[in-house]
Amino acid sequence: MNRPPDEHAGDEPARLGRKREALVCRSRTLQAIRQFFHMRDFLEVETPVRLRAPAPERHIDAEPAGAYFLRTSPELHMKRLLAAGYERLFQMGPCFRRGERGPLHHPEYTMLEWYRANASYTEILDDTVALIRHVVRSVSGGSVLHRRGCAVRVDADWARFTVSDAFSRWADWDPVTAYDADRFDVDLVEKVEPALRAQPVPVVLTDYPIAAAALARSKADAPAVAERWELYIAGLEIANAYSELIDAQEQQRRFEACARERGAAGLTVYPADRAFMDALAHGLPPCGGIALGVDRLVMLLADAPTMDDVTAFAE
Amino acid sequence: MYTASDLRKGLKIEIDGAPCVITDFQFMKPGKGQALYRCKIKNLITGATVDKTYRAVDKIDKPNLEQRDLIYSYQDGAHFVFMDNDTYEQVLIDEEVLGDQRYFLVEDMEVEILFHNNNPIEVTLPVFIEKDIAETEPGVRGDTATNVMKPAKLDNGYEIQVPLFINQGDRVRIDTRTGKYADRVSKGF
Fold first, then answer.
1. Smaller CB count within 10 Å for chain A: N or C?
2. % of chain B surpassing 90 pLDDT
3. Interface list for A 170-209 with B (CB within 8 A)
4. What is the pLDDT of residues B116-158, one digit of tens each?
5. Mean pLDDT, residues A36-53
6. Distance from CA of A111 to the nearest CA of B (A)
7. What is the least distance, in Å, from the CA of B33 to any CA of chain A?
8. Which of chain B's residues have a Cβ under 8 Å away from the Cβ of A230?
9. Alpha helices in chain A (DSSP H)
10. Is the pLDDT of residue A2 over 70?
11. Distance from CA of B55 to the nearest CA of A (A)
């Protein structure tokens, strides 16, 4: 449902008591994630939560906070650190997206992002496979995740589908040859994601149409395709990775196009992040990065159907 | 018109001129994509169910619905006659609209009727109504403890399961949501 649950109002100790197992699972997950990155020499950073200029995205709305906005992602600040020579960075903390509320969405949630200099979405995938295996082993002692009666083996070889393959197979068209944003979103939710639910291993959906990847680099040998992948486990979208766009002029064009589209749709147009554009102009090394929804990973580890189940206070 | 952000479980909408109700609702948002609203929708006239996905920009028709409290008067063949106590207007409702609820109508009873473009589409009876048992096997005295049931008939032919102690002529309370016996109101002669 799209409303905060209030049926237990007045009985908070009992409601929170029932969440003990899920909250223990969340705590162990956070610990295992931090342990993984510290073992691999990643620097844990904290970047501002209040921003003047949130990362522009056509379909993501930022929560206003006085003269600022709450961050929808720490992405632009993390890239400024990469531009300054930091090579392996991770951050885990709250992000905010206005108006997103459902069984798989909270307007305030926990995001894990990590970045590697001199790497692409391929190295980020290697990290992700190792991270998920490490976290599942640390938290559950095993290698299987559960959701709604489906079991997913994270230690087996992961499945990989290009967007072209997946859509041709389950939705009867290829968004890479002729992109249609509306049809893409609807078919992804109605046809492709349900098909991924039945996969007994994690699925990497890769090589998105360039129009569906605002901050990703295009493939050298296939300019219509962006180096972007998404991880699905039991049909649940867990993470989004890019070979990051480092071309300042191309980034400027995409931000401007995004601002035009948001303006035309009557949405808030966010100010440009000058410091980020300066960093990009100064030179960002080739890099890969990823954003992973920690609450959803906890849902899988706790075999919990909704985000409310793994969050102490779902306001 | 409704916009997609108005959608929620229980909301009544109109699709291609037909009044419908949303029976299930889920907010979805594929990575980097737009917000989508997945709905299960039931046609209030045919009862047929469909799945539909709305986008944030979609507009959804608002049905012209009106709820009125009317008094049940009498049956006239396949029609049931109701009266508006304020205007004295008579409203005829077909057997199909009422379904099994027609067996639970009691003269002078007030019922809620939902109209779509002035056509009655849904009738809501009081939760409990009282009816006399017209026909059943003689009751077993004293047997009020067991859950064993036996068939009985109302004067309109509706068959209902009642406890063994119920006799012909007893007045019973019936839950109109389930069509099942609730308890005994009074004993007959």
1. C
2. 76
3. 181-182, 184-186, 188-190, 193
4. 999 999 899 999 999 999 999 887 766 666 678 999 999 889 9
5. 97
6. 14
7. 6
8. 31
9. 12-18, 20-39, 75-83, 121-140, 163-170, 181-187, 193-196, 248-264, 274-283, 294-302
10. no
11. 8
pLDDT at A1 exceeding the cut of 50: no
The pLDDT, as a whole number, for residue B57 is 87
| The two structure tokens encoding residue B43 | 């046609």
* Residue of B26, B34, B52, B53 for testing the chain A interface, max A β-carbons within 10 Å: B34
Q: What is the mean pLDDT of residues A201-208?
A: 97
Domains of chain B: 2-60 (2.30.30.30), 65-124 (2.40.50.140), 128-186 (2.40.50.140)
Asked if A186's CB is within 8 angstroms of B55's CB, the reply is: yes
For residue B150, give Cα distances in angstroms to A253, A283, B163: 78, 85, 6
Amino acid A33: pLDDT: 98
B10 touching chain A per CB within 8 A: no
CB pairs under 8 A between A and B: 67
- pLDDT, residue A3, reads 47
CB proximity B55 to A under 8 Å? yes
Three-state secondary structure of B81-115: EEECCCCCCEEEEEHHHHHHHHHHCCCCCEEEEEE
Contact A286, A117 (CB under 8 A): yes
Helix axes A121-140, A294-302, angle to 10 degrees: 40
Residues written for chain A: 315
Specify the residue for token string 């909301």. B11
Q: Does residue A8 surpass a pLDDT of 80?
A: no
Of B26, B36, B57, the CB nearest to A103: B26
Alpha-carbon gap: A1 to the closest alpha carbon of chain B (Å): 6
pLDDT tens string B150-168: 999 998 899 999 998 899 9
Are the CB atoms for A248 and A277 separated by under 8 Å? Answer: yes
| Mean pLDDT, range B53-65, rounded to an integer | 93
* B30 vs A contacts (CB less than 8 Å): 185, 188-189, 193, 237
**Chain-chain contact of A240 with B32 (C-beta, under 8 angstroms):** yes
